[in-house]
Amino acid sequence: MDETVGRAHPEPWNRGKLVGQKAPFKLKEIWAIRVRLQLFRGARDLALFELGIDSKLRACDLVRLKVRDICHCDRVAARAIVMQQKTSRSVQFEITESTREAVAAWIKEAGLRSEDYLFPSRLHESLHLSTRQYAHIVDSWVEEIGLDPADYGTHSMRRTKASLIYRRTKNLRAVQLLFETATYCPRTSGRRTDPLSVSSAVR
């Protein structure tokens, strides 16, 4: 008898879910989440949120950050360079003062050392937060300010800062440089110069 007969098929991960590009957070939503984290969630979630916005890193790279990746001696650096797991390319990002303060407070509270993961998992079998855990945490932030988690996700964190900069400057080149990754827009009849490289995360 064929062993595959009667074998249950695993349920698709996206069954019954809305999938596709997630919306970036607006400025008022950033402040709403930030205030709730400051009041109710504690140092880890605030540091995770602030660094997620500033770094624009994919979830897989953010959860694998170590203290030494963003700290020089005992101080959180103003800039950091991280090798991206997906592209094997380095990306540089600025760490704002408010984020440095939040991360420093978390490191002190958790007693983290230079070689430790910045966001250790609370599960014994994992050394750091998993991307799934991170996704659940982001969903909880979204729900707490009255938004639909189906419309937002970890990629919202990655897209937010670039979206805010583009709304303010309308400068696609500046946004592309933030991500250090590019695809090319097709030439149009009205464009006389070479195609402008534009981050796929913005498109």
In short:
This protein has helices at residues 27-41, 43-55, 59-62, 67-70, 97-110, 131-144, 154-169, 172-179, and strands spanning 71-72, 75-76, 79-83, 90-94, 183-184, 197-198.
Task: List strands and helices in order, with pairings.
Blueprint: H1 27-41, H2 43-55, H3 59-62, H4 67-70, E1 71-72, E2 75-76, E3 79-83, E4 90-94, H5 97-110, H6 131-144, H7 154-169, H8 172-179, E5 183-184, E6 197-198
Antiparallel strand pairs: 1-2, 3-4, 5-6
Strand order of the largest sheet: 1-2
The proportion of strand residues reads 5-15%
- The percentage helix is 40-55%
Rg, nearest Å:
19 Å
Terminal residue distance: 51 Å
The DSSP helix count reads 8
pLDDT averaged residue by residue: 81
Principal-axes geometry comes out as globular
Protein structure class: mainly alpha
User: What summary fits the major beta sheet?
Assistant: 2 strands, antiparallel
| SSE sequence, one letter per element | HHHHEEEEHHHHEE
Kindly state the number of beta strands.
Answer: 6
Question: Which parts are unreliable, with pLDDT below 50 for 5 consecutive residues or more?
Answer: 1-6, 181-203
Characteristic terms for this protein:
203 residues; mainly alpha; two-stranded antiparallel sheet; two-stranded antiparallel ribbon; 6 strands; 43% helix; disordered C terminus
What does it look like?
With 203 residues, this protein is mostly helical. 43% of the residues lie in helices and 9% in strands. It contains 8 helices and 6 strands. The strands form 3 sheets. It has a two-stranded antiparallel sheet. A two-stranded antiparallel sheet has the order 3-4. The protein has a two-stranded antiparallel ribbon with strand order 5-6. β3 and β4 form a beta hairpin. α2 runs antiparallel to α5. The protein is globular, with a radius of gyration of 19 Å. It starts with 26 loop residues before the first helix and ends in a 5-residue tail after the last strand.
